[in-house]
Amino acid sequence: MGAGAVGTTFAYALQISGSAGEIVLVDLNRERAEAEALDLNHGLFFTPPVQIRAGGYEECADADIVVITAGAKQKEGQTRLDLVGENVKICRSIVDSITEHTQEAILLMVTNPVDVLTYAALKFSDYPKERVIGSGTVLDTARFRYLLSRNCRVDPHNVHGYVLGEHGDSEVIAWSIASIAGMRMKEKCKTCPRRMEDCDREGVAEAVRNSAYHLISGKGATNWAVGLAMVRIVTALLRDEKSVLTVSSLIDGQYGIEDICLSIPAVLGSQGVEDLIAPGLSEEDRKALRASAETIDEVLRGVDLK
Ligand code: NAD
């Protein structure tokens, strides 16, 4: 749902990945969805085979995963939370249309504010909680690992760290569990040949948290990395990978948080979120995570979702 900047970048990356057998673009602007589908089809000579077309909500009937990227996006100076009023309404109409055709799919919410909308989709759809997922902080975690890898001069695949909580201004860079080759950053930094000159924690946290603002000011949208993050999530679900990714889902008592969708490490497989993992955090990270949950909770109450 949604064939704008994020939806089409995701479709393009998914086509190249070879993970999907069928991709259907659904958008209010049908003409645009048709044109985007045609453009992608012209690339089939260069990619693994996949059926791509534009369609309506009836196409959800046998979908494994329905990905929602439809709705308003941040303009310069807006936070993700500023989008809530408009996007909760869009979420309601889209989820109602989806559930008319399927009760079986996994819903992947990407539209912002993603944690609030994941909760909204869960309430509107009445789907089991394992099958309503938000892209959460998968992108933020990738941004964090990229910055750490650059500072530490280590491949991003070998840097472990998570961004938890809201995909937004209150998100938590969980320094207390960041590590390289099993070495916590606290220890690793002591052995750094560059003596942490570039690795000021506030600077890294600021760069992760404000990435979207910088990108929106420069190009009006963020699309490439989020498209790849979405392919990563969808592939983990389709292939039953049991991969650990920081998607947003309903939290059930972990860290003393309840009845809120936000990101903590989650195991993703064919059933959706199959397990939530709550690693031990420092008191500082734990407090920040609870504050992030409170921020989301306040917004949910503000739009009468609680
Ligand atoms: P966009 O304006 O390019 O595209 C939005 C699309 O939604 C448009 O094509 C529009 O026609 C369609 N649309 C609107 N209402 C609809 C409805 N009721 N049914 C079907 N289609 C509808 O925006 P974008 O840049 O693609 O961003 C989309 C959303 O994704 C925004 O909310 C943005 O903030 C969010 N986003 C999330 C992340 C993340 O990590 N979660 C990252 C980037 C962007």
Comma- or semicolon-separated keywords:
306 residues, Rossmann fold, L-2-Hydroxyisocaproate Dehydrogenase, Chain A, domain 2, binds nicotinamide-adenine-dinucleotide
Give a short account of the largest sheet.
3 strands, parallel
Strand order of the largest sheet: 3-4-5
Say what the CATH topology of the largest domain is. Answer: L-2-Hydroxyisocaproate Dehydrogenase, Chain A, domain 2
Small-molecule binders here are:
nicotinamide-adenine-dinucleotide
Could you tell me the radius of gyration in angstroms?
A: 19 Å
User: Strand fraction band?
Assistant: 15-25%
Gap between N and C termini, in Å? 26 Å
Mean pLDDT: 95
Number of domains: 2
Classify the secondary structure makeup into a structural class: alpha/beta
What oligomeric assembly is this protein in? single chain
Based on DSSP secondary structure assignment, what is the total number of beta strands?
15
